[in-house]
Design goal:
2 domains; 10 helices
Length: about 230
């Protein structure tokens, strides 16, 4: 078997680490298990990352695509205090949802059914793209207070608030079906998207449904629930 170039091996290490941290959390993840999943010895793993902390850091550099095409200095160094959190915050800040921002800037959407569909599809696609990284963040946040504050206190709550504001405005003008609480409705939408775009992939349900059929059905279901019959 031909020997893989170092950059490819580093990517395999990052992907194996992402899976393990996302499944077991920070404390539960063992470097030996990551090495085995990447198909190398533990000793070989430490030629790519200096420590478990460096391995965790690499997960976010890779997941948020903050590394260049060039191979970084190996082994990847142990990050300084707060450095990994800065990478996570930078990565989350670059994850943009332009469609909902455009919708929030408009008073009259013209075609509210199309607007809502695009907002929902945008959110589904982002969750689907980053679900492995989101799993790492959620599993490890309970063990790392700074990460818990950044994720649950700011990033995650911010997405609920943004969607809740959008729904509330459209409901107030009679463009979407009014719900008792717009923020709860935003949570229902996001959690529904999260289960199908993310959580179902972590268990035995991952292969039960065709991915494209899932996406179309979930988006259609949410839009049908929120758009008044007169606008369908």
């Amino acid at each position: 078997m031909p020997r893989l170039p170092p950059v490819q091996r580093l990517l395999e290490v990052a992907e194996a680490a992402t899976e393990e941290f996302g499944r077991l959390g920070y404390r539960g993840t063992k470097t030996a298990d990551v090495a085995a999943k990447a198909g190398m010895s533990t000793g070989s793993l430490f030629t790519y990352v200096e420590s478990k902390e460096a391995l965790f850091h690499l997960v976010f550099l890779h997941g948020f695509e903050l590394t260049s095409d060039q191979l970084p200095d190996l082994p990847v160094a142990t990050p300084g205090p707060g450095e990994t959190l800065k990478v996570i915050e930078a990565g989350l800040s670059q994850v943009q949802m332009p469609r909902i921002r455009e919708a929030l800037a408009k008073e009259d959407p013209g075609d509210v059914a199309l607007e809502l569909r695009e907002v929902v599809e945008e959110r589904y696609d982002l969750i689907e793209k980053y679900w492995r990284l989101l799993a790492v963040i959620e599993r490890c946040a309970v063990e790392i207070p700074e990460l818990e504050a950044a994720w649950f206190g700011l990033a995650r709550s911010g997405t609920f608030e943004e969607l809740g504001t959008y729904l509330d405005r459209r409901m107030a003008h009679g463009l979407l079906r009014r719900m008792p609480d717009a923020e709860v409705a935003a949570r229902v939408v996001t959690e529904s998207l999260s289960w199908f775009a993310w959580h179902r992939r972590e268990g035995r349900d991952s292969t039960l449904y065709d991915d494209n059929a899932v996406r179309r059905t979930v988006v259609e279901f949410i839009c049908a629930a929120l758009i008044p019959e007169s606008r369908c």
